[in-house]
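Many introductory courses stop at the sequence. We go one step further.
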Amino acid sequence: MDYWDIDFAPPKTHVDLYRLIKPFHKEIGLERCNLKSVEKYLGIVRADQIDGGKSVQLYEEYLTSRNVATREIILLHNFEDVLNLPKIFNILLYIEKNKIKRPDMLSEKQRAFILSLLKKNKLEFNFKADTISKNGASKLIDTLLKGNINSDELNNLEASFKN
């Protein structure tokens, strides 16, 4: 962006598609939830044969060598990553449209206990029961039992309770 003098403000939020897909991966037929598995599931065949780790390594090499062939490998990899993002995003639409539920959703007992702890501690926390995992609920319960937390701090912790 700097090189071409393009005015660009980075997004204020970050979306990690794999983190959003992972809780549902087995329900939609994925054995694993990594880029190669997701692309295979979607029928995506890439021309490049490197992974993200190799791309970083090649980029480090390119910075010193300025080898054109290395640059082309990196650019192809990045191009295909960006090209396939909308297809990968469609998995989230599929999950939402088909109302696929997480297998590790918090139990009704956990939900009731969390609500009672919030009430007891006079805290407000607007969590969605259908997005918090059992593991996240356990972390939340532990946090509430330890005390010394206010509503603002609790809301800041929300992202960590979803996986």
